[in-house]
Amino acid sequence: MRPEYRRHSTHCHRRRQIEHPGDLPKDKATTPVKRPALFASIPGGTNLYLPVQAYFNTIPSRMFRLGIASWTLPWAIGVPGYPWPQRPLGCIGLLDKAVEAGASVVQIADNLPLHALPEQELDQLREAAGARGLALEAGTRSLDPEHLARYIAIAHRIGARILRTVLSGSLLGAKERETAEAAIRQVLPALENLGVTLALENNEAFSAAEFAGIIQRIASSHVGICLDTANSLGRPETLQTVVENLAEHTVVLHAKDYDIRRIDNRMGFSIVGAPVGDGRVDFDFVLAELRRRGRTGVSVILEHWPPFAGTIEESVRLEEQWFSKSVRCMQSKI
Q1: Does residue 39 sit within a domain?
Q2: What is the pLDDT of residue 47?
Q3: pTM of the predicted structure, to 2 decimals
């Protein structure tokens, strides 16, 4: 493990600058890393396809699983409309970043679209994750039944138990909510047959209570919530409202921090991203509520909203600093 990712006894708000690690050498990127088997304690041996609550029952209490995602390092991957990094981070590179950080889960989402990979590369991705002792989660954006069915099959192929999806970032009404629920019901047999759990991510599309209502009415162990600590600001809803409504249904936590600042003329506010521990999100409260509701087996996926720092090189360096700080802070909490 790299020194900057070791656990620290100091408070996680303490600032510490690190050098940009850059990409791993090819020999290190391709060498399997021996790590404890994530599912070794499950009776009967490895089983990637347990229903989600049954899987939680196999995990010791108070255990969360630290993870990273393709939205942890968006500038290193590439953001449309901005300069592209000279060597964009790909799926295998993201796995190596997880190993560096001491994480055990990698969620590959819509900014590294898995449907763009041929089947051979999906198989290689599964093998690479297994060689590194990492669990994979798949991610996409849409509730179109045909699209979801495609991604359920992809999740199964790469050995991912979790498929996270999110709706468009706009306020939606009752008609769209009914459509979303019907779409999930349509793919429910595929989720159950392939042992994949759909994690519906909260955002401004619906209120937290409406997201909870969808999960309650479907009432399947293969459908839950990806609780994002920042997204519902667009509604707007407080973190307490989001957690109170969604914690009991959570199968994945997106740990995303932010700050709220007054603009220079004092007539309004801006919401900006921050490393975990430097912003307004009370992660102790979030994790305590998940524990209280018995959701301790969830993956805690670090995500960031880093700003563009003028050049792509500076932006990548900034998010590396955020990455290191967020890892240290969350490791101290879980």
Answers
A1: no
A2: 39
A3: 0.81
